[in-house]
Amino acid sequence: MKMIECWRWRFRDPTSGRVCRTMYAISEEEARKFPHAERVPGTLILREVDERDFSDTLPSVGVPSMK
Length: 67
Description:
Blueprint: E1 2-7, E2 9-12, E3 19-21, E4 26-27, H1 28-31, E5 38-39, E6 45-49, H2 51-54
Antiparallel strand pairs: 1-4, 1-6, 2-3, 2-5
């Protein structure tokens, strides 16, 4: 089982200039889409991920069946 650190992040909205915060805790990889994102202290959540359990289902999730 792999543990992933997930945080809430704050970032400046490039359009409005406002400081925004993510609603949910997300991984650092997911937070890269926000320019200059910073972790919000005290919001760390450790999530367990077992990639083996999902490796067979991920490619077809959300794809309509051919039936």
